[in-house]
Write a structure and sequence with these properties.
The chain is mainly alpha-helical and 327 residues long. It has two domains: 135 residues, Frizzled cysteine-rich domain (Orthogonal Bundle); 151 residues, EF-hand (Recoverin, domain 1, Orthogonal Bundle), CATH 1.10.238.10. Helix content is 50%, strand content 4%. The protein is globular.
């Protein structure tokens, strides 16, 4: 699966690599294969991360925002980067070659923040031609989750990535509905010329907005964009089945797949409200699922217990009822 020995290696280097492969062979039965991949890839890494600037607050790079090409850093809360990065990589090719050595750490998910942290270093978010600073808190979370695994295989946390080098100024970030709408478009969550309307995005924000602030932090945005990606794929699959249309039976199938079971009367009311010429648009498809999922979660939060009947009921104040239905 991996090329261990190159033509230019010395005899001692070849022996070292063959010893590593022998270790993998004899131990494969006791340690997960993915962890061996981690050890092997890191040991065969083309080099350690470049030394970053000594000053803790280096000036941001300026340039042209360009879409991220490396798969490792696609699907995040941003889609464009700017070079050079703080490690001195002049282009995405250079940065991509180096970040790839950390892919096993991302794959084993030793930390939820590992991918986010590494990408913020190697492929920083481009904001008006400027590189967004790396968040120290994200670095600390990534290191805390992964450093023990790295140490287990004889590797230490790279000195150029020490968390003390970064600040907390860009850590407390949250996104409003208009900002989220723009990000979803940039990330390709469209169908042809159909984009998600601001009204639909507000519904989606309500689905993930636990503290009712009207904003989502980066983690909740990641959950949201993952949800939208899944719903978009459902819509595209239905389109292919019916030559571009999502009809009534398909809408019922989608609701059932999301465990959103409506009686005939309620489905008829929903269909009459959203359908046009016997079909549902992409924006309305997402809005329907998002709205019903949100109402379902609101219902669960008000659910009554210890009822004298075998039934499911919830208790709402008038204010709660109005707020939860005005989605």
């Amino acid at each position: 699966m991996f090329s261990v020995v190159s033509a230019g290696q010395s005899a001692s280097e070849k022996d070292c690599n063959f010893q590593k492969m022998e270790f993998v062979r004899v131990s494969r039965s006791t340690i997960p294969l993915l962890l061996f991949t981690l050890s092997l890839l890191l040991s065969l890494s083309p080099g350690q991360p470049k030394e970053k600037r000594k000053d803790s607050n280096p000036p941001p790079s300026t340039g042209i925002c360009e879409r991220i090409q490396t798969p490792v850093c696609q699907g995040l809360s941003y889609s464009h980067t700017v070079m050079p990065n703080i490690l001195g990589h002049k282009n995405q090719e250079e940065a991509g070659l180096e970040i790839h050595q950390f892919y096993p750490l991302i794959k084993v998910q030793c930390s939820h923040d590992m991918q986010k942290f590494l990408c913020s270093v190697y492929f920083p978010e481009c904001v008006n031609g400027l590189a967004k600073p790396v968040c120290r808190t994200t670095c600390e979370s990534a290191k805390q989750g992964c450093v023990a695994l790295m140490n287990k295989f004889g590797f230490s946390w790279p000195s150029p990535l020490e968390c003390e080098s970064f600040s907390t100024e860009s850590c407390n970030e949250s996104f409003t509905a208009p900002e989220i709408q723009k990000k979803l478009v940039e990330m390709g969550h469209t169908v042809g010329d159909q984009v998600l309307s601001l009204q639909t995005v507000r519904i989606l924000v309500s689905l993930k907005d636990v503290d009712r602030s009207g904003k989502l932090n980066d983690h909740k945005f990641q959950e949201l964009q993952s949800y939208v990606s899944g719903v978009k794929n459902e819509y595209l699959n239905f389109q292919r089945e019916k030559s571009g249309a999502v009809d009534e039976s398909q809408m019922k199938s989608a609701l059932t797949a999301h465990d959103l079971r409506l009686n005939n009367l309620n489905f008829s009311l929903l269909w009459d409200r959203y359908s046009t010429a016997g079909q549902i648009s992409y924006d309305d498809f997402v809005a329907i699922l998002g709205r019903l999922e949100t109402l379902k979660e609101r219902f669960k939060s008000h659910r009554m217990t210890n009822l004298p009947c075998d039934c499911v009921m919830a208790s709402f104040s008038l204010d709660d009822f109005i707020r939860d239905t005005l989605l």
